[in-house]
């Protein structure tokens, strides 16, 4: 075992694997590889160039054939596409007509303006026993003001309403009088 400073030999150091190492070994190997790769890329034979040119032509021809085949298939599919478009247009026209008819039917009906829905009033009629022999003695039936009010509701001029229910603001207290209490005991 050596202790202290190691003595250096004359230029070459031994590594742990026992082989002497040159200081610029790695750099030369990389440079050599680079130059060979570029040199081989530049130097191609005529036969290699012809093969690459033929391969490029073949790929271009295959791409053109594929595009032509796809276009041909699209032409054959055109009839089916036209039929689908015609069906879709017919369906749209039928829906449009149905919506138009529905809008016309809804135009005559009263719309819902408020919380409640409009309800037709009951028709006021007289029973056969209440009818008299002449129109002069016939009693008037119904209420003109109520009829006008319902007409406004039907024509969407005012919203349908219901009569407000009477509600007390305070709770009613039950108090027994003394006189009444004495009688019960």
Automatic annotation (TrEMBL):
<dbReference type="GO" id="GO:0008097">
    <property type="term" value="F:5S rRNA binding"/>
</dbReference>
<feature type="compositionally biased region" description="Acidic residues">
    <location>
        <begin position="1"/>
        <end position="16"/>
    </location>
</feature>
<dbReference type="GO" id="GO:0006364">
    <property type="term" value="P:rRNA processing"/>
</dbReference>
<protein>
    <recommendedName>
        <fullName>Ribosome biogenesis protein NOP53</fullName>
    </recommendedName>
</protein>
<feature type="region of interest" description="Disordered">
    <location>
        <begin position="1"/>
        <end position="57"/>
    </location>
</feature>
<comment type="similarity">
    <text>Belongs to the NOP53 family.</text>
</comment>
<dbReference type="GO" id="GO:0005730">
    <property type="term" value="C:nucleolus"/>
</dbReference>
<dbReference type="Pfam" id="PF07767">
    <property type="entry name" value="Nop53"/>
</dbReference>
<keyword id="KW-0539">Nucleus</keyword>
<keyword id="KW-0690">Ribosome biogenesis</keyword>
<dbReference type="GO" id="GO:0000027">
    <property type="term" value="P:ribosomal large subunit assembly"/>
</dbReference>
<dbReference type="GO" id="GO:0005654">
    <property type="term" value="C:nucleoplasm"/>
</dbReference>
<dbReference type="InterPro" id="IPR011687">
    <property type="entry name" value="Nop53/GLTSCR2"/>
</dbReference>
